[in-house]
Amino acid sequence: MSKPSTAPHVADSHDLIRVQGARENNLKDVSIELPKRRLTVFTGVSGSGKSSLVFGTIAAESQRMINETYSAFVQGFMPTLSRPEVDLLDGLTTAIIVDQERMGSNPAPPSAPPPTPTRCCASCSAGSASRTSARRTRTRSTCPR
């Protein structure tokens, strides 16, 4: 019979991300320690600085660190990111940032009706939601324009 291991699991010997003196947007000298390799949830009322801490400070510095790993040629095509307003940001590693934008390509709320199809001209048979996309789909044989 095997004896259960008393050694801690490798994920339990985690490090910390330390933020001291964060001053992005409405943050005023916020200091926090976050465990790595753990799900951390930020909650609070609107305007309390959740997004400023996560996206404006931690994610911004992580993205800047990733951008520094690219060649000078590639960096020339990327936006220049400044360091966030913070006294100390320690233990941070590069990460993939998932933004808080809505999923999908339609920014309209689900209750909005779909656009009414229109025609680019009287002799065109291509119906479209907009004049621009109708121009892309029509051919010379279906439209005189």
Overall description:
The chain is an alpha+beta fold and 145 residues long. It has two domains: 13-90, 3-Layer(aba) Sandwich (Rossmann fold); 114-145, no CATH class. Helix content is 21%, strand content 14%. It has helices at 50-68, 72-75, 131-137; strands at residues 16-22, 30-35, 88-90, 118-119, 127-128. The chain has a three-stranded antiparallel beta sheet, with helices on one face. The protein has a two-stranded antiparallel sheet with strand order 4-5. Residues 100-145 are annotated as: Disordered. Residues 107-117 have a biased composition (Pro residues).
Distance between the first and last residues' Cα: 84 Å
Structural class: alpha+beta
Mean pLDDT: 75
Q: What is the assigned CATH homologous superfamily of the largest domain?
A: P-loop containing nucleotide triphosphate hydrolases
| Strand line-up across the major sheet | 2-1-3
Instruction: Give start-end ranges of low-pLDDT stretches.
Output: 127-141
Helix content: 10-25%
The CATH C-level name of the largest domain is: Alpha Beta
CATH topology title of the largest domain? Rossmann fold
User: Strand portion, in percent?
Assistant: 5-15%
- How large, in whole angstroms, is the Cα Rg? 25 Å
Oligomer: single chain
Total of domains = 2
Count of alpha/pi helices: 3
The CATH architecture of the largest domain would be 3-Layer(aba) Sandwich
What does the main sheet amount to? 3 strands, antiparallel
Q: How many beta-strand runs?
A: 5
Shape: extended
H and E order: EEHHEEEH
